[in-house]
Amino acid sequence: MKKIKLDGPIFVEGNVTIEGVNGQFNTIMYVKGDVTIEYSVINGLNNTGSLIIFAGGDIKIRNNSLYQDNPSNIKGFFYSEKALEMFGVGSNIKIEGGVSARRIVLNAIRGKASKSSFSGSKEVDDDYYEGQANQLKLPPEKSRLQIIYDPNIMNTYADLKSREPMVISVDPPQITERKLE
To answer: How far apart are alpha carbons 138 and 110 in whole angstroms?
Structure first.
């Protein structure tokens, strides 16, 4: 798994795929296309950073912190103009912030999940998931997908956004002549 650190605003004309990384983020992503985050471990930069994504396309977050007991901890907000899908069955994700989209699909279980033989992005049989009886006994905090609404996420957005350069004044236009010699 590649280690990456991203800090600051990112603008993308097309699609974004984050795959197979151990990433630390403190960034706002403006994406015109789709966003896919999979087979990764995603956390805040220095345990305090945020990941905020505004996407024109779909957002799919799946197979992150796969079969791990400790979740990816993200202070974040995910907005899609279309659909947002998040999975917490094999994944283990905890988001402090929020989500918004025209269509939201969330799937999760409570408790442990494991695969006796897992290698990179190739999966083989021998899955283990808590049974229904065990899941009903577990508290909601044991869910493998937790979204904890944080009303201060917009303050985080404003703090990150303030780092973007702002145009305060513009020079008057100049007329130039082009000559070929």
So the answer is: 7
Residues near 111 by beta carbon (within 8 Å), at least 6 away in sequence: 129, 130, 134, 135, 138, 142, 144
**Whole-number Å distance between alpha carbons of 58 and 105:** 11
Q: What is the per-residue pLDDT across 107-143, written as a single tens digit (0 to 9) for each?
A: 888 888 887 654 555 555 567 777 777 777 888 888 8
Q: Measuring CA to CA, how many Å separate 12 from each of 21, 30, 53, 54, 107?
A: 19, 6, 11, 10, 28
DSSP one-letter string for 87-99: EESS--EEEEEEE
Please state, in angstroms and as integers, the Cα–Cα distance from residue 153 to each residue in 15, 20, 77, 105, following that order: 24, 27, 7, 21
How is residue 143 annotated by DSSP?
Answer: B
d(CA 84, CA 104): 5
Task: State pTM to two decimals.
Answer: 0.76
